[in-house]
Queue: 4 jobs
Job 1
Amino acid sequence: MSAVAACSGSSGGSAGSSAGSASADSSGPAQILVVASTNVWGDVVEQVGGDHVQVTSVISDPGADPHAYQANAQNQLALSKAALVVENGGGYDDFMQTMLASGSSGAPVINAVTVSGLTAADGELNEHVWYDLPGTTKVADAAAEQLAALDPGDAADYRANAAAFDKAVAALSAQVQTIKAAHGGTPVAITEPVPLYLIEAAGLVNVTPEQFSSAIENETDVPAAVMDQTLKLFTDKQVAALVYNEQTSGPQTQALVDAAKANGIPVVPVTEILPDGQDYLTWMQSNIQALSRALGG
């Protein structure tokens, strides 16, 4: 799919006048209806759209696995009414492709992987692109332009909000560069590739056996020899921290967490879905601070 597939999406017109618009109250202005695959992208669009948008995020439960999620009739109905759709892409949220293929939505689609410009490394794409800060600003900018096209009267608001978001993300990127300046080249371990963009931006080196993280991501058993090799990273204190996805914790990832703690190696939990009570900016701020603390500031 193209980054923004311009189709016959409905614009936000007068209240209730067309699909894709809704009224905040009986006399208030129409809001542009947006459907996002996860609450991460839903929050980014909300920060750009402000009060002009009404966002439905298909997945907001930290316990849900986007890779395996099966869309339901309620999701399909929301999509059919949307004026703008935001998906992650890259095979992460294929349920969106399944719904879009049904033809129930003619709205323009922002594909975060495509918009980010990130490509496969060593033949395999890390689809967790929201951990790439520059890529996320590109999605925010794309949302601003799509919302401006749907609602030209409020275009200045969307672009100003996107600029403010980009500035806040740039400040986060500066903090990541501070980590890189102090700890560049430091070896760390992961359980799966979720935080890799952030880790690499901080100049850290992932030394986890690829067979381990691939098995965890694909929900298959880690071979015994690979498990032993991975555990030695902690027993031999070869890494400065373990960054793990706490949403997909199982016996083998827990074994790594236990080994890290037993050997005094800091553990940094991360998630794929936006935690309750946080927005994208506060969430990334907490992740960066946790990583900095783990490495000794």
Job 2
Amino acid sequence: MSLSASSVTAASAAWVWIPDFAEVAQTDEYTIVRFPDYFHQPLQVLAFQPVGPVAGAVTAVLDRAREYGKPELQWHLLLGSPPGLAEELAARGATVRVTLDVLARELHAGAPDLPAPAVDVTLRWATDAATARDNEAVAVAIFGGSPPPAERVAQIAADNADNVPAGKGGTVTAYLGGAPVGAGGLNIVDGVARLWGGGVSESARGQGVYRALLNARLEYAAAHGATMALVKARTDTSAPILLRAGFAAYGQESVYQVPL
């Protein structure tokens, strides 16, 4: 069974992560999230659907964002973003920080049979503080930011301990020779497995570690009733691996760096 472009677009648009520990400024037209400072980019615009002219709505968002006192923000341009938004941001000095391929694969028939990695990879769900701490350390090394405080790591582990056995998802860490080298997460929402945060340390790439992380998450998703796997993948790193694993591309999204 193939996926329709409309179903993937709708699932992608519905994917907005707002954790309970973040500060949110939200109206009918936009969602601004102020993450803790240990995030690689604390201030982000995650949703934007203006009812009037784009230019005026962008001005309103930037005026509100400046109240946080940050020098810049990240603005996510989604598949359903209004026409002219990219040009409006560029005119205000914004630049593209990263381009993401929106990739999806159906899971009605279960998880795909992916080739085994070339090395002996150990995978652990981050349901304890030590594994959660390893997961966060790998993520910081790959994506930037700084490690979260100990109490936040403990909360991540506690959440995983509840959510993983309940079929809601969680984070998984990959180890080579006892050292953490990869990380990946997923959440299952309305039958969609949202795969996020997948990455491997530079020294361990090219050996199938990312594929092992992908396989573990797809098997988990299929076992817990997900019928679609959805990823917003970096075009130059994870996207080629996912395409080889049977995912299909449904468009691109961009993350703009906007000066304030």
Job 3
Amino acid sequence: MERAEISAHQLRVFQFVSQTQRWVTSEEIATHAKVAPRTARAHAKLLVSLGIFDQAEVFPGHRYRLAPQAGKRNKAYLLRLQQAEEVFS
């Protein structure tokens, strides 16, 4: 479900994952994006549902990365994230 607003937390989650160029856990996201683990998981799941992130369901936890097709899957939301980067910078 797409939201009308993008929070600073969601933006930091997006920025970290998009800059890593590898699969990352929600714990890594939480640490590097400086958000709570629960917040990292929630934003990662949302960005997966919007087509921005890919998710690998592996044990013991899921891994996330920026989807190579993110621009094709949800160009409008990706643009909104990029605009939010300008606002929060």
Job 4
Amino acid sequence: MDNQQQELPLETAAAIEAAPQGVAVRRVVDLGDGAGPEVFEATAPTREEALDILADKQAEAKLNASKKIREQEAELRDLRARTSEPLDPKSTADEEYVLAQEFSKMPKATFRKMFEEMTGMKPEEFQTMKQAAQAYQAATATTEAISTFVSMHPDYEDAGPIGDKNGTAMKKKLDELKLPVTPENLHRAYSILR
């Protein structure tokens, strides 16, 4: 194997090479969202030790991501709690009557107006924020599933010229079976392909 580290796509587990101080392992994870790739590297005397160190680094990154997700979920709960407060409690009967009339004539426009007053954002902005949170959670779950699979299958060929083919074949098999990326489904695809 050459003396330069290789960057392999997400479908493969890690790039491995011989280094003067042992074996160097590198994992590049790019969610494709424009934020750029996240790089994990480890060097150890043996392949197994290097993979253990790499797994520890990925686990630490997962822990940090989980903490951030929980913080964002708490912020979202707080936002929902603030926006679910009743309309201005000081509203008069006249204001309620006017609102009811607006709803009967233009329900969508009236809802939008109320939503913006209550939340400080347009419904589209809220939907975009919700979709971004869901996409982040899905990407984190996929990364965690792949890391778990790799750590549980030391026999998985993840390096060298066939590494790309293995990851691609597993992704294709999951797509064929219409299965999401989970450690169990990765194991199932791996068993079928072996």
